[in-house]
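hey m, so remember when u said the tokens were messed up on ur end? i reran from scratch. heres the input so u can diff it against urs
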Amino acid sequence: MAKTVADMTAEELHELVGSAVEQKIVELLGDPDTGLVLRANVRKRLLRQKRAVANGERGEPLEAVVRRLKLD
């Protein structure tokens, strides 16, 4: 069942608008990375970082950052 804008929370509306704007920008300008080649060493580093985050070895939960920076 589809939600109407009136039924959305502020966060849901913000996400919807942000997603629509991003989609339109990519539609108009295209993907600036299209056709570029990712170097092997960069790919390896990104995959290593992704594994570290998944294993909890790297990164910090958003909630912890918000508390630490007193953004709540």
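this time it looks ok to me. Helices lie at 10-29, 40-54, 62-68. if urs says something different then somethings off w ur setup not the seq
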